[in-house]
Specification:
Blueprint: E1 3-7, E2 10-13, E3 18-25, E4 33-39, E5 46-51, E6 58-60, E7 68-73, E8 78-83, E9 92-99, E10 111-112, E11 116-121
Length: 122
């Protein structure tokens, strides 16, 4: 059974930082592109960042470019999202996702985590 488990969410002041982590199991991690999405009440889930299976290619939504950094450690089966200069509009539930092809703007990824809440106060 494939499981993606997010951690690291919490409450932070605007301008602060958080680091999210996603631990994967039940799949050949190195063969999957990984990514992060986020969703707020009443809005569609949106793509945040993606990384290729080798880690050599990354892609970011314009809204987070220059502030967020995605990385992966295939030896540990984990993917992380370093979030700096956080803004109130970054408040959302953040989801980890895996896909055998690509995750960039892909709302139909093969596997999804349950999400972790990130709240940024003014």
């Amino acid at each position: 059974q494939v499981q993606l488990v997010e951690s690291g969410g919490g409450l932070v002041q605007a301008g602060g930082s958080l680091r999210l982590s996603c631990a994967a199991s039940g799949l050949t991690f190195s063969k999957y592109a990984m990514g992060w999405f986020r969703q707020t009440p009443g809005k569609e889930r949106e793509f945040v960042a993606g990384i290729s299976w080798s880690g050599g290619i990354t892609f970011y939504a314009d809204s987070v470019k220059g502030r967020f950094t995605i990385s992966r450690d295939n030896a540990k089966n984990t993917v992380s999202l370093q979030m700096n200069s956080l803004k109130p509009e970054d408040t959302a539930v953040y989801y980890c996702a895996a896909d055998a092809d690509y995750v960039d703007y892909n709302l139909n990824c093969d596997y999804w985590g349950q999400g972790t809440q990130v709240t940024v106060s003014s």
